[in-house]
Amino acid sequence: MSHPSRTPGTPPVVRIHDLRCRYDGEAGPVDALRGVDLDVPRGSFTAIMGPSGSGKTTLLHCAAGLQKPTSGTVELGGADLSRLDETALTRLRRRRVGFVFQAFHLLAALTARENVELPLRLDGRRPDPRHTAALLDRVGLGARGGHRPHQLSGGQKQRVAVARALITGPEVVFADEPTGALDIRSARDVLGLLRDLADNGQTIIMVTHDPVAASFSDQVLFLADGMIVDHLRRPSAPDVAARMATLVESAERAADTAGVV
Ligand code: ADP
Ligand code: MG
């Protein structure tokens, strides 16, 4: 299979420069991101890992335009998010990015088909039934378009969510712990699907704490204390697990030193 979108020289689909995010926590300010630089090639599958509290969700949300950073820049498909007003940012979120969440976030009253079409309807566009059917086929749910979420397994629900994330033809699909609520087999199905999408040119950025999930990606970035401290290309699950163990250990040591229990 060819990867026209990964031709050398193609500009990265996401460019992040010196991204910083500070929250006003109850016990004072929290620097969740402390200068993150990142280029994501079009058509690549990137995994973001790191100990709990290292800034993974904050990074994902800033990259996707869900959250404004304190400083630094995010460019998505050439658009500098900090220069967009709220209307333009909403349009970008609706049309140019897709989301997959750990808890699926499907609407219980809608069928799988209607859930998949929702992003288009929210954008005031009329879905093409053939397109929806093709997407449901693509995620292996061609026969289940009329089912409601309670009639689907966890893995099937997440595949509906993946189809929903794809319906607008987004430049990037962002996934935060997409397999966190799934059993091992369903998790592998969903990861295989994401891998397959990336092999066909879809850019995917996924937060995970599971080394096996990360091993489906092209590159793993390791966050610690709001900074990218390491990365692995073509990662194997044991290599990812080993790096994570080291990071978690030093995070715990730092917490001990700081007198945190
Ligand atoms: P991760 O996803 O890696 O667990 P997060 O991005 O959720 O990390 O959080 C990074 C840091 O920022 C943590 O210390 C967390 O407690 C803090 N944080 C996250 N969201 C908020 C918020 N809304 N207000 C205050 N602190 C926050
Ligand atoms: Mg998180």
Task: Give descriptors for this structure.
globular, binds magnesium ion, Rossmann fold, 25% strand, 261 residues
Descriptive notes:
The strands form 2 sheets. The chain has a 6-stranded mixed β-sheet with strand order 6-7-8-3-9-10, with helices on both faces. A 4-stranded antiparallel β-sheet has the order 2-1-4-5, covered by helices on one side. A hairpin with a 2-residue loop joins strand 9 and strand 10 (227-233). Helix 3 packs parallel to helix 5 (154-166) and helix 4 (129-138) packs across helix 5 (154-166). It has helices spanning 56-63, 86-95, 112-122, 129-138, 154-166, 184-199, 211-214, 237-257, and strands at 14-25, 28-40, 45-49, 71-76, 79-80, 97-101, 172-176, 203-207, 219-224, 227-233. The protein is 36% helix and 25% strand. It is globular, with a radius of gyration of 19 Å. The protein contains 8 helices and 10 strands. It has a single domain (12-260), classed as P-loop containing nucleotide triphosphate hydrolases (Rossmann fold, 3-Layer(aba) Sandwich), CATH 3.40.50.300. The structure holds adenosine-5'-diphosphate and magnesium ion. Magnesium ion binds next to helix 1.
